[in-house]
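quick one before i forget lol
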Amino acid sequence: MDRLHDDFWNFRGSFRIAKVVDIGTHMSLVRQGNGRFLALDSYDLDAEDRDQLLALTDGGALVDAIINVHPFHTLHCAALHSVLPGARLIGTRRHHAERPELRWEPGVIEDPAAQAEFAEDLEFSTPRGVDFISADDKVHVASVLVRHRPSGIVHVDDTINVLEPPALLSAILPEPRLRFHPMLGKALEKRPGAADDYANWALELARAWADTRTVCTAHSAVRTLPPGGWETEILGALLDVDKTLDSHRATYG
């Protein structure tokens, strides 16, 4: 458990593909203005992290809700809810479909009405122009991004990643930077204007959250940004997918 701000903690965990390749995972904990807590995403915490979480939250009694923001991150929902059984369980509509045995709140977090309840402490953003739940379950492009207002820290799963070179190659490869999901081309809606909708969303996000200094990403790293770094790197990430967007425009208009 890493404390990134007086009211924001990030937990980094292990997630192995085929029990071999560890791509990592994460969850975050935020303290609201009323002194109570919200968990962002679910992770099967190890004993040390679980003990620290419970110590901080009066045995979990101070956690109001677990908010799961990526439709394809469903594996650890039951594990975290067993640690925090008194917390409300909030997810996307795919969470409801995939884990119907869990006690989900009726509202889904991709709905602005569900987000509005937490607006005093959190900002939300969902990419436009892409399928929120892809028919291909390997395409994990879309999620609900969360920004903690007091700290300006962004919590994001998959939609934005950190491109970080291996330690052995760090001296010769570019500095770590933010990038959009590499499977964007498969997620764009098959209709005219989808590429422009995505590009405009990214431009708006770069400007609206321009003072962001820390980004917690699911499978890569926590990125600490210099002043102005969020806008610079989001705009750079948009340039990186320019060919993908142009290809979509050429096909669909």
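fyi The longest strand covers residues 25-31.
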